[in-house]
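The passage that follows is intended for readers who have already worked through the single-chain material. We present the inputs for a multi-component assembly, then the predicted structure in tokenized form, and finally a short commentary. You are encouraged to pause after the input and sketch how you expect the pieces to fit together before reading on.
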Amino acid sequence: MSRIGGQGMSTSELIGADPGWLILVKGVLIFVICVVATLLSIWAERRIVARMQVRVGPNRAGKFGLLQSLADGVKLALKEDLIPKAADRVVFVIAPIISATTCFMAFAVVPMTGKVRLFGHTTAMQLTDLPVGVLYVLAIASVGVYGIVLAGWSSGSTYPLLGGLRSSAQVISYEVAMGLSLVAVFIYSGSMSTSSIIDAQQKWWFGVVLFPSFIIYVISMVGETNRAPFDLAEAEGELVGGFHTEYSSLKFALFFLAEYVNMVVVSSLATTLFLGGYHALPGLGFTETWLGGWFTLVWFFAKVILFFFLFVWLRGTLPRLRYDQFMQFGWKVLIPVSLLWIMIVSTLRVMSQQGAPRFVIVGFTFGVLLLVFAAASLFDKAKEKRKLEDKESLNAFPAPSFPVPVLTPQISTQASIGTEEIND
Amino acid sequence: MHNLFIQSLQVGRTATPEAVQFWILAPLAVLAALGMLLVKKAVHSALLLAWVMITLAILYIAQGALFLGIVQVVVYTGAVMMLFLFILMLVGVDSSDSLVENIKGQRPAAIAAAVGIVGLLLSLIGRATLNHPATGVEAINANGNVQGLANELFTQYVWAFEVVSALLITAALGSMVLAHSQKPKSRTSQRDLSIARFRGDSLAHAAGLPGSGVYALHNAVDVPALGPDGQPSDASISKVLEARGDIIASKPFELTHIDEEEN
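Having made your guess, compare it with the prediction:
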């Protein structure tokens, strides 16, 4: 089934043959990649957002300001480390550690390259290949939320507590939508391991075949990482800094690191599940053998950067959602739509597996489309009716009478006289 | 005794790494479980319980039950414990349980239910294990761990599976029905309030109520603002503070009053 091994070796067999020291090297490499990606992405985000807001952004430290985040990191580390008196000391210290460790762990199952040579061994740049790899990422993400929630609670202060509560509710709700969007991928690839999902996308990317799932995943990944416009856990306009209000120095830096590594992780998962992972764009398959296979790393990061840019773009464009609207969107739109989509996908899948004739499949698809359109038009009609009723209920009140100045033609003549005077 | 333990460990094929893992994780899990019962703060208890669940999940994974381990983390640690923590954090940081029984006969009913469940579990586990030699996880995982589990769940045990899921859905619906009381009228929204403000009897407060305090002299919520006519405005203070009698008269903070004193 798996193609990348060449001699009939699947990725899991390839990785399974790694000696212990190579696993260690890969672990260190993943750590380094994540940290460097964080430094660069903070810089990139600041520069891109600045460009979107017609500013320059950091451009002093190093070439193009590239060393800005490094300088900020050093500054943060040298700051005084405060622990509030009302804080629960043990949990206060553990919380950022939980956040920062779990985000790295999730990266272990992400395949970054195809078959490559590393220190004389044929292997793939992926630490481990679990048969339930994608679920593992979900599990790690759900443990990672503990960091945010506990940080909020242990600070012994109101705003962080509110931020922590929001975050826990948010991540639970959006994890449901995210999990449901993954189900369609599992059904189509017949596997939950990241490497076989990539192999299943040889012909068509799941981002194309399962487009609704892709959209739902992208929305819920923004919700899952607490990024704008879903950054309600740290809404600076409402909650000061949210869960990390009381944090300073390295502990704050750990939260910062965790946020950006999480962005890289969800982006790389999106790449793996929907954009064919490390594979080249269609028609450019010959590039995959360049540099002994290491060129696939370029493709992988190109796709990850695409998602990262989306994150920044969203932040630069959209205002923050109100909390109740955000929850309503998650539970009343994303989850029902995903459920409906999964039912359609599984029906289609079973049909094609049972060898149903093509016209039945096409007919079913059209039938579903018609039903969706009918439901949408009914919904629109109900909405219009409600609007009309709203207007009628407004008419029940007497129209207000405001004291309005009388507008006479005099004003315009006066204005024209004024301009003439200036011209003189 | 110690040797017996070691022997009982080696009943299966316990490889060395697995044994090392066990002897590290098991004491940690037991300590955390004991701590859960002994610590004072409810949130600490919840955290220790979450830790026990994670160690169990790691042990499951090491035993070859990959799916079970991951799902244990996703469902129990990620969702159930998180909801628990959510409630605990909402209830308050230092709240202790009240020991007063609210429902009559709750204790005997609870004891009866507990005994019943233990009896049920014992009989079930007994029937499942006695005279049934263990198959071994390798045989179960022959076609893949997830596939094997799905096969069992959706063929032989599909009835039990459906019954359990129906039970869970009923419980979820029940909790929703209990938590949501039907309101006779929908809550007034921001929009309703705005309409009422402009289409009501008077436009006096259309731009909002006056803020409390006397500018520059006493800017606090407990002092009524002075209107343009020099009279304290009742609309500027909270009705709650007024009812509690926590209101200071704004007269002493009036600028003219102080000027007179200085003269």
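Commentary: The first helix of chain B runs from residue 2 to 9. DSSP finds eleven helices and two strands in chain B. How closely did your sketch match?
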